[in-house]
Specification:
The protein has 273 residues and is α/β, with parallel strands linked by helices. It has helices at residues 2-34, 51-58, 71-81, 171-184, 188-191, 223-236, 263-266, and strands at residues 40-44, 85-93, 97-104, 107-113, 116-121, 126-130, 149-152, 156-158, 166-167, 196-198, 205-209, 213-218, 243-246, 254-257. It has a nine-stranded mixed β-sheet, covered by helices on one side. A hairpin with a 6-residue loop joins strand 10 (196-198) and strand 11. The longest helix is centred in the N-terminal third of the chain and has 33 residues, at 2-34. The chain starts with a helix and ends in a 7-residue tail after the last helix.
Length: 273
């Protein structure tokens, strides 16, 4: 008799437990549709994209069921839609709030390929394509956006919107990472003065600071120190100065004023010599 009573108690317990689970599931299903509405949607971390664009990309509907939001899918869709967005966090807070925290990357590099210009973020994602050919703008007439460093390289294997640019030479990533680290570590204003980098020959790298200075950096090694060194030299020069700064390993840092620059450098053959 005791065993039967125990068995009956256990049976009743499991039946009650299953009923509670079913009722809980039913409650939350209906609660998501009728009680927990998405009334407060807070988006932080970007002014690059509109409120409506973020919601549409994430499939989040104001007034819809809060519990029905698929956060994983929404995050993936938002990242895939906007190349400048590097990370997405979505937090649901009962009874009616959704917090969307975004982190966006800035366009830092640019490259001319196939007659069009591509903007690349600091984490090497291709974020934007400026269609010069369809606008009938020649490469020589195009002026890159302010703050973008134009890369000249022969080692590009793939360049697609929303994907990381693929170089055939892995050393290029290490080189550009040093520049990106300078950008995010408090040297933003200094880095923004750089307008171009020629890395077609990684043993004879050069940089342009607007139309004022051509900096001969030499090899890829210790590029951060070389850049900072060149900036120190520029700060010591008169504001009207223009010319070539040479900080290659083979000689002490030097400055050649514009009037003494050989014609070979004036013609744009910066990597010669």
């Amino acid at each position: 008799m005791i065993i039967k009573k125990i068995g009956k108690i256990i049976k009743n317990f499991f039946i009650t437990f299953i009923i509670i689970i079913i009722l809980t599931v039913v409650f939350f299903l209906f609660a998501g549709d009728y009680f927990f509405k998405t009334e407060n949607i807070i988006i932080t971390g970007t002014d690059m994209y509109s409120y409506e664009e973020i919601l549409e990309a994430g499939g989040i509907i104001p007034g819809g069921g809060l519990l029905g939001i698929d956060s994983v899918k929404a995050k993936k869709n938002i990242k895939n839609t906007f190349a400048y967005i590097e990370s997405v966090k979505i937090k649901k807070k009962l009874p009616s709030t959704v917090n969307i925290e975004l982190k966006t990357g800035a366009g830092l590099f640019g490259i001319m390929l196939g007659g069009d210009y591509y903007i690349i973020t600091s984490n090497f994602t291709v974020a934007e394509k400026i269609k010069l050919r369809s606008a009938k703008i020649s490469a020589s007439d195009f002026v890159p956006p302010e703050g973008i460093i134009t890369i000249e390289a022969d080692a590009v294997r793939k360049c697609r919107i929303g994907e990381v640019i693929l170089f055939s030479d892995a050393d290029i990533y290490d080189f550009l990472k040093e520049i990106a680290l300078l950008y995010v570590s408090g040297n933003k204003n200094s880095i923004e003065s750089i307008t171009g980098i020629d890395i077609k020959n990684k043993f004879k790298v050069t940089m342009n600071y607007g139309d004022k200075f051509l900096v001969r950096l030499g090899i890829f090694d210790n590029i951060s120190l070389r850049i900072l060194n060149s900036l120190e030299i520029i700060e010591q020069l008169p504001t009207y100065a223009k010319g070539i700064i040479d900080i290659t390993d083979s000689k002490a840092a030097s400055f050649t004023p514009e009037g003494n620059i050989p014609e070979i450098y004036k013609s744009g053959a910066h990597n010669t010599g």
